[in-house]
Amino acid sequence: MRNLVAGARLTAGIVAVLLGCLSARLSSAAEPVVGADWPAYGGDAGGSHYSPLMQIAPGNVAKLRLAWSYQIKWPQKKPAAFEVTPLKVGDLVYVCLPQNDIVALDADTGAVRWKYAAHLRPWSSSTVCRGLAYYKAPGAPAECPQRLIMASVDATLRAVDAQTGAPCRAFGTQGIVDLLKGLGPVKEGFYTPTSPPAIVRGLAVVGAGVPDNGELQNPSGVVRAYDAITGKMVWAWDLGHPERHGEPPAGDIYTRNTPNAWSLLSADERLGLVYVPTGNSNPDYFGAHRSVQAEKYSSSVVALDASTGEVRWSFQAVHHDLWDYDVGAQPVLVDLPEGSGNVPALIQATKTGQVFVLDRRDGHALSKIVERPVPQGAGRGDWSARTQPFSVGMPAFTGPDLTEEDMWGLTPFDALWCRIKFRSARYDGPMTPPSERGWIYSTGFLGGIDWGGVSVDTTRDIMIVNSFRMANRNRFASVAEFANDPNARLPFPFFHQEGSPYFAVFTAVFRSPLGVPCQRPPYGMISAVDLKSHRLLWTRPLGTSRNSGPLGWQLPFDFTMGSPNIGGSLVTGSGIAFIGATLDQYFRAIDVRTGAQLWRAQLPSAAFANPMTYVSHRSGRQYVVIASGGNSLMAHAHGLFIMAFALPAPH
Amino acid sequence: MRIAPARGAPWIFASILMVIGLALAAGGAELASLGGSWYYLLTGIVLVASAVYLWRGRRMGMWLYLFVVAYTLLWSLWEIGLDGWALASRMGMLVVLAIYFLFPGPRRRLA
Fold first, then answer.
1. Is A324 in the active site?
2. ipTM, two decimals
3. How many domains does chain B fold into?
4. Which residue from A179, A208, A343, B101 lies 20 to 30 Å from A168 (Cα-Cα)?
């Protein structure tokens, strides 16, 4: 019996290897599949960050070594955030740099195969590119049969040949589509796409970032779909004009200051829907002037018809958002066991630490959501929502409510300072609204769960969540505080609150004068949730105190702390979650079943990015790849790196 | 009343404690007035007393200081339990300063 089982396993193994070789042979012709390839930002178009690969497994992951790395020289003074998740299709790994140049690297060696220089139009803004979209044209056209489509921070959409890096000339004008069309006057840097387009039914769907607390005349948050071959606009979702699906009529523009979609969209090719996580109208902390439509669609996930841009359904995660709780996490599309069969679900993690589970066909809740009364109040003339949705059927990652005893500091002095601030500001638990005496809210504006999102092991139905719990301390500021010209740039972290009775808001992480958090650790957690029972399987602090310290010092002490984290995880078929994201600059492998750390490697900089994994067709080796470059706050002193890890090569 | 330190008294250490005590008492008074913990106000006052005794070369100053360390530990455990990070924040500075009394010199000089 035993031999029979072993024999059956061996046969299955041989078949798998043969199939693997076959699929490698066919790879240039076939659609790329997650596993050998990583063809989309989130692995698949639904953002599960799951790869079925098994080569790197809990039993051997401790042997993981750096296989290759690729360094991008980057001036330290040049602001950037290196948040890219590379793609891998065929033999090439595709990386976009913060200023939208693209490099194609050899999957086995990291050697540069081609480069694309973006030559952005002058555009004064911070630079970030989270990734690229890959599109394989049907019917093999002569030009760019396989292409990369990139939404660039200079408000352009670009298409380049995936084999050569040459612009696809038939796409827009010489490979470039101007996204400023129809937006009306846009100040430099006020419209900055930073996330890859979603590809669905031959279209590239794209939103953009606008400045937080920018101005009431911020550019529109319009979401637009472009033909992936020609770059022609096919539809627009301008929530101020639900009846329009094309460009605005002559003389008109897309509705200004509507909730925007800066983060990662997901697409369901079969249902023909694209799922859009939305932000908020400006400013962040005052909302009396927001339009009815903006109120309906802000801080939501909106399902749009992929062919027309019409709204099919929407779910609002935060009503009348006064906390900068825009939805940053990519909606994750997975099929979940419900009753007798599988239901197409959408998992929406949010900055409040709530995780909502919806039926992605119609938006109805698959896990219980209740509207709970929340603390009332707001800035003068503004209002607050009576209730907010709480996903009571799922574990929350908000962290416990703050108490005075949670106040922390390096010394008794700054702990005392924090206690005084805690007692003098308003804090009434989750969703504490703005208040003229100053207010503390937790989670803060970094989440909860931000754009790093969650990953889902779709074979075991386990969701991996990395979360951040650090409160914000805010206060309104009057013009009298600023002796200089009121039109001048405000000192950080003050931001104008145009349209409110307040000149500005001070909004920052609740920190002591020594620059340490005003609350005790942990700040970062990693957890696993069983998506069948909705139960928390395990939860642990993520990361150590390494590179943290007062006054911005980066101290070497390596104690388990639970680090602030930016970025997300991936999970593999072998049951490993890979994650960087922490300030301690480690890249980790974690056992999906237990939460135990199986392996870690020190990186040159923090990896504020999601990892990806693939198998090289040539060598058959599995690689796990992550971008390590930190951001402007966590200095990328040594440049930006793409780091690829693999097991030692077989002899 | 004599203002100058007693002969041989640990006046530098006493001055440090005095500054710490006054700062904690001042901030602690504000915190208590906001409805917060009284620990900082009381501890500030005890540290000021400890500083005065040390200034005068009196061993009572050492005992008062060690009393603060002891009840701070109990208070910390009562407030947050066995949380290393929270204990470090509350105990760190007090314990580091307590090392001073481990040296025989300062102890000998106190009457």
1. yes
2. 0.96
3. 1
4. A208
